[in-house]
Design goal:
Helix content: 55-70%
Number of strands: 2
Structural class: mainly alpha
Radius of gyration: 21 Å
Largest sheet: 2 strands, antiparallel
Number of helices: 13
Distance between the termini: 61 Å
Oligomer: single chain
Shape: globular
């Protein structure tokens, strides 16, 4: 009982840290975008975490952990609506549920993860997507798409049943790429912000508050202690401490290498590239944080740092407008981190690498198809992009009727 209490307390602390990440996402997104859209972004972030938790309680948790029957395809299952009581017939806590934590703690920890996928999309579509279509998309994606995708591995589905099981410790693919694939679809269907590409030239649209963006990245790094540390699913001292070390080293390597590479390429010390390098390192290590040595973690983070610089450039060249670099960070580094499990650490090998490829491809097909159906349907029925006037004057005034900074309003065009 004492061990259960220790494990459960650790899991609850990690749940709180993952919850705190939503503040980090909000700060990062508003910092890297213009002040006239600040309230709009904050509203979306608050909507995602509140609605996400409710949806996860009603349907998501039991979609993600349906208890696949032996011999089933492991693609879709549903254990029923709502949360069930984790008590025995005598009214005591059911300790057969798990030796590491209670049913309630498990739900809340996983629920915090669920909302993250839609938050990734929020940053990519910032400054030009209507709020109502985004809210409808978030409800469907967090409520249905993410839990089904998660069940394929974490719920014991077909990817977990491969002869060499697909491995994703804390969600490089299950969380980050699931959000990243949807972000690609959304950005393609939305188009670029006004002024981003002029006569074939890429125009930088600076964020209005880089100090806030920096605070957001540091909060996210702190939150990753819970994201990865909690994914051990116990307070095991060896595994949790190793996981936190590999997480931190990968983040540090990603940031330093991204800063060096971007400085060599663009001849300026770009803080935003430094910040995205840290996030790339964090996303990259997430799939195998418990399987890597410190040296492996530094290599994975360093490669993610290089990837970030070239990925941001590639996305611009493809005329995809991603204001916060969400696609480069979450999708491309998520794919890299997932494949890295087959190249580095305890699980490295050809069979594991093939399983990782199967996993990446499975999520790509499912997430691209579902997000396209949802967003394209919204585009054709209600429209997904604000008018030119609304975009130029800001979404805060037109969709919320107020300013984030009423005393410092600028006429931003």
């Amino acid at each position: 009982m004492e061990l259960l209490t220790i494990n459960n307390v650790w899991m609850m602390i990690c749940t709180a840290l993952v919850f705190f990440m939503h503040l980090g996402f909000a700060f990062l997104e508003i910092g890297l975008t213009r002040q006239k859209n600040t309230l709009n972004i904050l509203f979306k972030n608050i909507f995602i975490i509140t609605t996400g938790l409710l949806l996860y309680a009603l349907v998501g948790f039991n979609l993600m952990y349906p208890g696949f029957a032996e011999g089933s395809s492991g693609i879709f299952g549903f254990a029923g609506f709502g949360l069930s009581s984790p008590l025995t017939a005598e009214g005591a806590l059911d300790l057969t549920y798990n030796e590491g934590y209670t049913y309630w703690t498990d739900f809340l920890f996983q629920g915090m993860f669920a909302a993250t996928a839609a938050t990734i999309v929020s940053g990519a579509v910032a400054e030009r997507m209507k709020i109502l279509p985004f809210m409808i998309f978030a409800v469907i994606y967090v409520g249905i798409v993410y839990p089904i995708a998660g069940s394929w591995k974490w719920g014991g589905g077909f990817l977990d049943q491969l002869s060499t099981p697909f491995y994703d410790f804390a969600g490089s693919t299950l969380v980050h790429s699931v959000g990243g694939w949807a972000a690609v679809v959304a950005v393609c269907l939305l188009g670029a912000r006004i002024g981003k590409f002029k006569k074939g030239e890429i125009q930088a649209i600076p964020g209005h508050n880089i100090p806030l963006a920096t605070a957001g990245v540091l909060i996210l790094w702190l939150g990753w202690f819970g994201f990865n540390g909690g994914s051990v699913l116990s307070a095991d001292p060896g595994l949790t401490s190793l996981t936190l070390v590999t997480t931190c080293l990968s983040a540090a390597a990603g940031g330093v290498v991204a800063a060096i590479v971007s400085t060599i390429m663009y001849k300026n010390l770009d803080l935003t590239m430094f910040l995205n390098g840290i996030l790339g390192g964090l996303v990259g290590i997430t799939a195998g944080a418990d399987q890597m040595s410190p040296t492996d973690a530094i290599l994975i983070g360093a490669i993610a740092g290089v990837i970030i610089v070239f990925a941001v450039s590639l996305i611009d060249k493809l005329k995809l407008d991603d204001p916060v670099g969400a696609i480069a960070v979450h999708l491309i580094c998520g794919i890299w981190g997932t494949l890295a499990v087959g190249l580095f650490g305890n699980l490295a090998g050809v069979d594991q690498f093939i399983s990782q490829l199967i996993g990446v491809a499975s999520y790509a097909v499912f997430c691209l198809a579902t997000s396209f159906i949802i967003i394209y349907t919204l585009k054709k029925t209600m429209g997904i992009r604000v008018s030119e006037k609304e975009e130029l004057e800001g979404l805060d005034v037109h969709e919320h009727g107020m300013d984030a900074y009423p005393d410092f309003r600028l006429n931003e065009h």
